[in-house]
Amino acid sequence: MQTNIEKIYDCTIIGGGLAGLCLSIQLAKAGYTVLLLEKNKYPFHKVCGEYISMESYDFISRLGLNLDELNLPKINQLNITAHNGFKIKSPLTLGGFGISRYTLDYELALIAKKSGVVLLENCPATNVAFQNTNYIVESTLGKFNSKLVCGSYGKIEPAFIKRETKKGDYIGIKYHIKTKFPTDLIELHNFKDGYCGISMVDNQTVCLCYLTTKKNLNNNNNDIKQLEKNTLMQNPYLKKYFEEAEFIFEKPLAISKIGFSKKETYQNGIVMLGDAAGAIAPLCGNGMSIAMRSSKILFEKIDLFFQNKLSKEELIDSYTREWNKNFSLRIKTGYYLQKLFGKYHTTLLSLRLLKHCPKLFEKLITLTHGDKF
Ligand SMILES: Cc1cc2nc3c(=O)[nH]c(=O)nc-3n(C[C@H](O)[C@H](O)[C@H](O)COP(=O)(O)OP(=O)(O)OC[C@H]3O[C@@H](n4cnc5c(N)ncnc54)[C@H](O)[C@@H]3O)c2cc1C
Is the CB of 278 under 6 A from ligand 1? Predict the structure, then answer.
C-alpha cells in the first residue's frame, strides 16, 4: 500500500482503456508526470466489436504503435441482414481495420510505460477527494496526490462518482472464433431485440460480438446458450456461424447494464473522456475512435492549462464545447439508428428502403464516421 502523498502527479487518470491510455501517452510525451490506474491486468479481453474506424489509424501510429507492421485486416465492405436473412450491402468509404482489444490495449500499455507513465495494474480507484488545491485519489494500492484527475473508466460508473445516471438495460456478449471470413468485410446481423457484428481481427481470428436487451436474456431463463438458440440462430447467417465455426473462448465474455447517452464532461472535480463522457451505440462502430479523439482534444486543453494559458474553468468550458461539436451528432445518430435495429418489421422496412436508396445508406454510414485526426 502506497501512502506517499508528498509526490504530486500532474495528472492522474482513472481507467486504462483506449481513452485513458492514449491521454496518458500524450501527456507523458509532453513531459508531464502521469499516474494511470487500471483495475485489470494487461493483456485482457474486452466486450467490443473490435472494428476501428480508419479515422484513428494515423493517430495510433503517431502514438508509437506501428500498425502497418501488424498487417491488420482493412475493412471496406458492409453487409447488413434482417432477422429473416434479407441482405443489403454497401461499400464503406472511409472504412476501418480490425484489431483485438487484447492486443491493442496491451501494446498501448507498453508504450505508456516506455513513455514514463506510472501505470498501476490491478488497481481500481475507489475515491477522489479535493484537498487544499489538489486531489487525493484513493485506490486499492494506496492514496495518490494529483493536480488534475481525469475519468476514463468506461461505461460502468464507479460507485464514488455521485451522479444520477440511468442504468442501461443492454447486455454485450463477445466471442473470438475461427471460420473462413473475408478480411475486407464487416457483417451486421439483426435478430429479435439485438444485432451481432462480425469481422476479422489480428491473428487470423474473427470477432463475433452482439448486443441485446437484458429482457431478452431474462426471457431465455438467463441462459446465453438458450438466447442464442432461440433468437440469434433464427437469422440464417448467424445460425451458420454458431453451428459451424470454432469458438475459441471457453465461456462467452459478457457485460451488462450498458446504456448509451451523453453524460457530463466534468463531475466531482473529474474531467471525463471516452465512454465515461458518453457512450455511442456499438452499431455505429466508432466508440473506440471517439474515445481516442476525445483524448487528443483533452490533451491539447490540459497542455494549455499547465502552461497557464487556460484556467481550470476555461479548460472545462472549451473541452466541453469541442466535445459537443465533435460528438453530439454522432451519439444522437447512433441513438436513433439503434432504435431501427433489432425490431422485426422496422428493421426489415428500413433495410428495404436503404436497398433502394444506396446514397442515403452511404450518407448514414458517413454520419457515424469522423474525419481522420
Ligand atoms: C457490444 C459492444 C460492441 C462494441 N463494438 C465496437 C466496435 O466494433 N468499434 C468501436 O469503435 N467501438 C465499439 N464499442 C464501443 C467501445 O468498446 C467503447 O466505446 C470504447 O471501449 C471506449 O473506450 P474507453 O477507454 O472510454 O473505455 P473502456 O475501453 O471500457 O476502458 C475503461 C477502462 O477503465 C477500467 N476501469 C473501470 N473502472 C475503473 C476504476 N474504478 N479504477 C481503475 N480502472 C477502472 C476498465 O477496466 C477499463 O479497462 C462497442 C461497445 C459494445 C458494448
Answer: no
Q: Is 38 in the pocket of ligand 1 (CB under 6 A)?
A: yes
Q: Whose CA is nearest to atom 20 of ligand 1?
A: 288
| Segment 241-255, tens digit of pLDDT | 999 999 999 899 999
DSSP state, 90? E
Please tell me the distance from the alpha carbon of residue 232 to that of residue 242, in angstroms, as a whole number. Answer: 9
Q: pTM of the predicted model, to two decimals?
A: 0.96
Q: How many CB atoms neighbour CB 179 within 10 A?
A: 15
Listing DSSP states for 218-284 in one string gives: HTTTT-HHHHHHHTGGGSHHHHHHHHHSEE-SSS-EEEEEE---B--SEETTEEE-GGGTBPPPGGG
Q: What are the residue boundaries of the structural domains of the chain, listed by start?
A: 8-368
Which listed CATH number (1.20.1740.10, 3.40.50.1970, 3.40.50.300, 3.50.50.60) goes with 8-368? 3.50.50.60
